[in-house]
Amino acid sequence: MQTWEYYITPLPLHTPGVILGNLGTQGWELVQVTVNAEGGSVAYLKRPIAAEGADA
């Protein structure tokens, strides 16, 4: 069964694409973006965790 790790990060107003692009190159997949009460954006990301003993 696939297992996942999760990452939650605020997104800067001026460079969200740069942040998401960098995280994407690290294997993170964007799941959702929400706007908090103060108007800032928060990104929720996930990436698979390799099973122990699995071939790379």
Which labels suit this protein?
elongated; alpha+beta; single chain; 18% helix; Alpha-Beta Plaits; 1 helix; 3-stranded antiparallel β-sheet; 56 residues
Describe this structure as you would to a colleague.
The protein has one helix at 16-25; strands at 3-11, 29-35, 41-49. It has a single domain (3-49), classed as Alpha-Beta Plaits, CATH 3.30.70. With 56 residues, it is of the alpha+beta class.
Strand content: 35-45%
Q: Give the % helix.
A: 10-25%
Shape descriptor reads elongated
- Total beta strand runs: 3
Mean pLDDT: 91
Sheet having the most strands? 3 strands, antiparallel
CATH class: Alpha Beta
Q: Give the oligomer, counting copies of the same chain as homo and different chains as hetero.
A: single chain
Question: How far apart are the termini?
Answer: 16 Å
Number of domains: 1
Tell me the series of helices and strands, N- to C-terminal: EHEE
Uncertain segments of ≥5 residues (pLDDT<50)? none
CATH architecture: 2-Layer Sandwich
> How many distinct helices?
1
Q: Kindly report the spatial arrangement of strands forming the biggest sheet.
A: 1-3-2
